[in-house]
Structures are given as structure tokens and as C-alpha cells.
Write a structure and sequence with these properties.
Layout lengths: L1 E10 L2 E11 L4 E5 L6 H9 L6 E6 L2 E2 L10 E4 L11 H11 L4 H14 L15 H13 L5 E5 L7 H18 L3 E5 L2 H7 L2 E6 L2 E6 L1 H6 L4 H6 L5 E9 L2 E5 L2 E4 L12 E6 L3 E2 L9 E11 L4 E7 L3 E7 L8 E5 L5 E5 L10
Parallel strand pairs: 3-8, 3-9, 6-7, 7-8
Antiparallel strand pairs: 1-2, 1-4, 4-5, 9-10, 11-12, 11-14, 12-13, 14-20, 15-19, 16-17, 16-19, 17-18
Length: about 350
């Protein structure tokens, strides 16, 4: 459906986007995930026709639309600040795009009523938008974006202006609405949990490039590099030296660790950094591979579960999540599945965004 090819863009004379390329298929919800100020919103605005790229093209169904004006692209855009017209009521805000399309008044009335019911705001037609709460504004902005039957829907940090409690409450509603609309979606956020909840596919944007793209579980369980791991909140890392290739084994401060690594990518003696995406408390009959003694040194309640800090082998601190509280000082055994331990070169970094 949509193809973005080799998009380049500068901001204040410095490279912002360095050849961004991706596709979005029919009925697919793609989440563009990255740090604030990294160019995510700029990509949306270029796709929408609200900004012009220095280089690259935007295609829709194989046709280059890079020079097509925004109002002729037929895409829906929900802005981070919602961009509702303060001088118009709810009905007129939603009807605005339909009037631009010169739709007859009766059809406008029916369509506005339909999308208001869809977002659970059917009784708000005459309400002034300045009297709406944050969550209500979000729903109206969404209704306005989908009212003209857009070919593609773009959501720019749609939860960014909401507090955490309201965000969690509305996220489920938004997911249901996205399924009902049956429209391809590009969803921009810097919030990892939000991205994992929403997306069919996640694209990580860093230093002006998309560095990883894949299903949420794939991206989380196998980050392409240490930056991505850190950005996704994966904290358990160990430095070590490769001591064997078959099976792949690394000598670390806590002892010898078996890891999931392609032997051809490393040699014996190479310094590496291990990322451990799954550390759990071992059962009595656990496989002894990658099992280590540990002690609980801290914990705090997170609302649904507990975050435990463990001191492993009396030298290295790891953080895990547990469904039950454990007293500080308790000794236990932890296990680290080989397939969840990934190996990276020390000091690896992406190239700078250059022209």
C-alpha cells in the first residue's frame, strides 16, 4: 500500500533523516518507535504532504505521490496536540474534513453521528471542544481523523498528552477502534509498552535510520544491538571473553556462560557483551546449564508484580520480575536459558547520520 523510499531531511542545517525506507501493507498497524526529537513526526508529516523531503519518494499503490498536495492524498492525521479547532463545536470539528470533500449536508450529519458513536461520544455533538477533558479530546481527534474514510491513518503520539492512568484506560479502547476501522496505520510513539500493545510490526528509529523492524516479540527478544536493548529497557548485561565456539561459551565475572551466538561471527579471545533477556528463579530439577547462585538484595512492588534486584554469584546485580514477593537476603538459584543470551561486540555503535 504505502512505500517510503530513501527519505532524507535536514533540521537547522543538520541531518535528521538519513535514507529512511519502509513499507506498510493493507490492514497493517506499524509502530514507529524512537526517542523524542528523533524525526518520527517529521516522517509522518512528509508522508502526509505537510513537509517536503530533501530527497526520497513516497509511493501509494506503486504511484509516486511525493509532489501531490496534502489535501489530495486522502490520508488521515491525528496530531499529538489533537489540533482541534477551538472556535468550533465537536460536530463542526469532525465535519470539517467532510465539508472540504464537498459531501452533502445529510451525509455529513450521518457520518459524524456514526464516528461519534464509534468513539463513545454520541451525546457530545454540540459540546464546545474547550470544555472537553484530555481523553475526550483524544476521542474527538480520532473521530475527525477517520471521518473522511482515509486510505491511511497516521497517529502522532496519540497518548502523549495524557497521564498514565488515563493512557492505560484509553489504549484498549483505541486498539479496538483500530481493528474496527480496518485501515492501515502508522503509529508514532516513544513509549515501548504502548508500541508493543498496538503494533503488528515495530520499527526502531535511531540516528536518522530504521535500525530494526519486526514483530513486537521478535524485536524484544532479539534486539539488533545494545542501543536497541537499552532503549527497550533490557538492563541485564555482562562483559566477557569468548572461550569456545561449539558450544558458544563466554567467560564472565559470574563464571562460564553458554550463549546464543553464531560461531562464525566471533573468535576465541574476542571481548563481547552479553544481553540476558530472560533470567528466572530455577526449579529444583532445573537444567544445570547457566544456573547460578543468587541473593535478593532489593525489591519493590510495581502494581501487578514485583521487581527484584538479585546479586548473582556475589558479584553481579541483575533485575528480574516476579509474581510474588521475596524477602531481602533470601538465597536462591537463577537460570538463564541459552537461547535468551545474546552476544554483541564490545563498543559497537551506529554510524553518524551523514549526508
Amino acid at each position: 500500500m504505502l512505500e517510503v523510499k530513501n527519505i532524507k531531511k535536514q533540521y537547522e542545517g543538520k541531518p535528521l533523516l538519513c535514507g529512511v525506507s519502509f513499507r506498510v501493507g493493507a490492514d497493517e498497524t506499524v509502530c514507529l518507535l524512537g526517542r523524542s526529537g528523533g524525526g518520527k513526526s517529521t516522517i509522518l508529516r512528509i508522508i502526509a504532504g505537510l513537509e517536503i523531503a530533501e530527497d526520497g519518494q513516497v509511493f501509494w499503490n506503486g504511484q509516486d505521490i511525493s509532489q501531490v498536495p496534502a489535501h489530495r492524498r486522502g490520508f488521515g492525521f491525528m496530531f499529538q496536540d489533537y489540533a482541534l479547532f477551538p472556535h468550533l463545536n465537536v460536530f463542526e470539528n469532525i465535519a470539517y474534513g467532510l465539508r472540504v470533500q464537498k459531501m452533502p449536508d445529510e451525509q455529513i450529519r450521518l457520518r459524524v453521528s456514526e464516528v461519534l458513536d464509534m468513539v463513545g461520544m454520541g451525546a457530545f455533538e454540540k459540546r464546545a471542544v474547550i470544555d472537553l477533558s484530555g481523553g475526550e479530546k483524544q476521542r474527538i481527534a480520532f473521530a475527525r481523523a477517520i471521518a473522511p474514510w482515509p486510505k491511511l491513518l497516521m497517529l502522532d503520539e496519540p497518548m502523549g498528552a495524557l497521564d498514565r492512568t488515563l493512557r492505560d484506560q484509553l489504549l484498549g479502547d483505541l486498539l479496538q477502534l483500530l481493528r474496527v476501522t480496518d485501515i492501515p496505520v502508522i503509529y508514532v510513539t516513544h513509549d515501548q509498552e504502548e508500541a508493543f500493545a498496538v503494533a503488528d510490526r515495530i520499527m526502531i528509529l535511531h540516528d536518522g535510520r530504521i535500525i530494526q523492524s519486526g514483530a513486537p516479540q521478535e524485536v524484544y527478544s532479539r534486539p539488533i544491538d545494545l542501543y536497541t536493548a537499552s532503549f527497550l529497557g533490557l538492563k541485564n548485561r555482562l562483559l566477557g571473553t569468548v572461550t569456545a565456539l561449539d558450544p558458544f561459551t563466554v567467560d564472565t565475572p559470574i563464571g562460564s556462560v553458554r550463549a546464543a551466538c553464531i560461531a562464525g561471527e566471533k573468535r576465541v579471545g574476542d571481548g563481547v557483551e552479553l544481553l540476558l533477556t530472560d533470567i528466572s528463579i530455577a526449579q529444583k530439577d532445573a537444567d544445570r546449564i547457566n544456573c547460578f547462585s543468587a541473593r535478593v538484595i532489593a525489591q519493590h512492588f510495581q502494581g501487578r508484580d514485583f521487581q527484584l534486584t538479585l546479586r548473582v554469584a556475589d558479584i553481579w546485580d541483575a533485575v528480574i520480575t516476579s509474581d510474588k514477593s521475596l524477602p531481602e537476603g533470601q538465597d536462591l538459584i537463577v537460570t538463564m536459558p541459552v537461547e535468551s543470551i545474546h552476544c554483541y561486540s564490545k563498543g559497537e555503535a551506529h554510524e553518524d547520520c551523514q549526508e
